[in-house]
Structures are given as structure tokens and as C-alpha cells.
Amino acid sequence: MITISELSKKANVTLGTLRTSGRRPGISMPGNAGSIDLRYYDSIGLLNPSGTTEGGHRTYENEDIFKLQQIQFLKKVGFSLKEIKQLIENDDLDPVDHIKNQLNLIRSEQKILEKMERDLVGLLHSYSIEGRINWDLILQMLKHQQSGQMEMRECSKRWLGEKAEEVAKKLPNINDDNKETKEWIDLLKEIQSVMDQSPDSEEVQTIVKKIWMKSESLYGEDEQLQHQLWEVRRSPEKSWQLGWYPLDEKLLQFLDRAFAIYEKGRKQT
Hints:
By secondary structure, the chain is an all-alpha fold.
């Protein structure tokens, strides 16, 4: 027989007050198994002490430790205290449906969290490109992505033909938190930093070469495809219709001049 303090040490939990069900408001999340109030569990009949000392202190048996470990585990995987009470106290209850429902809930929430994560990554990348949070642009893009999926597919087939699917798979996405996307964003920032120079300057042409080589690494030496992509990208309207992140028109015009100079130099060598 052990006291409540000894039980808390054995189970590695605290006696701090916690009055939650193990879920955050608005979205069900696994509970914090370390934040447990044994006194509260006693008050709701979830984990009652086996006895008390002469001084009135709660005491617990080994089976109480086992029950507390059950509670900790079920709380960790997202069950509410009410659900936990039903699962560990009702021997006639088939737990399979409850477990399947919780698993489906977690998987559904995982998809929601992944979408939230991608949106937050996109917001950070947009800030990196724009130097500010351009809410008008962000909200317009969100609306367009939600309502313009059919238009995006039709325009992609119209302008990129049989290469549309290949482009879709390889094209960097601003919501992706990967090396490829970050490298493209860094190249954009590099070219933005030299727009006060002439498009034929050595520094500008060095960056343009890196952009060209980066494009080659995605699509091989298919220059026709690269030209098709640039024809779409240089048009703010077409880029928008495809759901691509819109770039500043002055930047696009600057890049267009710089690419023309770069290609002329390539053909002469």
C-alpha cells in the first residue's frame, strides 16, 4: 500500500491541477500523459484510492498503479476522461469500435494538421519573397486554389500539352518545406537583389545561369519545355490561371531581358 505522493513518483506524474478532458478546444489532440491530477481523478470516480491512513491520506494498491498506467496510455492517444472511464470500467463494452473511431479521428486530424503545416510554410516562404505578409495576395491565392482546380488543369493541358503532368510533379510548390523549393526562393531573392544593375552585368548573368541550370536539373535538357514554362511564367495572367505563385511584373520583365541576353551568349559559344 502506497500514498498518493508515492504513486505519483512511481507513475512519473504530477499532482498539479488539471481540469481538461485531454483534448484541446477546437481540435482533438492526444493529451499530456504527464499532467495528471490524482485528486481530480478521485473526485470523478476514475481512480479512487484503495484506502486511507489514520491521518486521512489516500493510499493505493498495485492494481491502482496498473489502472493509472492504463489511464495514462489512453489519455496519450487522445481519449477523453469520460471515454477512458467507460473503457476501463465496463467489461461488457467492446473496445474495438471506440479504438477504430479514435484512430479515424486521429488520421482525419493528421490531414488537417498537415494542411495547416503546408499553409504556414507557404506563408513563411511568401514573406521571404515579398519581405512582408501580402494578405491580399495570400487570400486571393487561397480562394483561387479552392475554386479554380478545373481551370488550372485545363490551362495546364492547353499550354504545356503532354508535358503538363511532368511539370506538375516537378514544379516547386511554395507550400513545400524542402530543399528544392528553398533553393528556388533563394534564387528569386538573389535576382531581386541585383535589379538595380543592367541585365547584362556579370552578376546578373551569373544568377540567370544558375536559374537556367536549376531548371535543367528538373526537366533535363528539354529546352523546348523550358521555353514553354518561361512563356507561361512571364505572363502574370497565365501564371495565375495555373495557380503558380505570382511574381512582381517588374521582376518578370527584368528576368525576360536577362534571359534573352543569356541565351544569345549561349548560342555564340
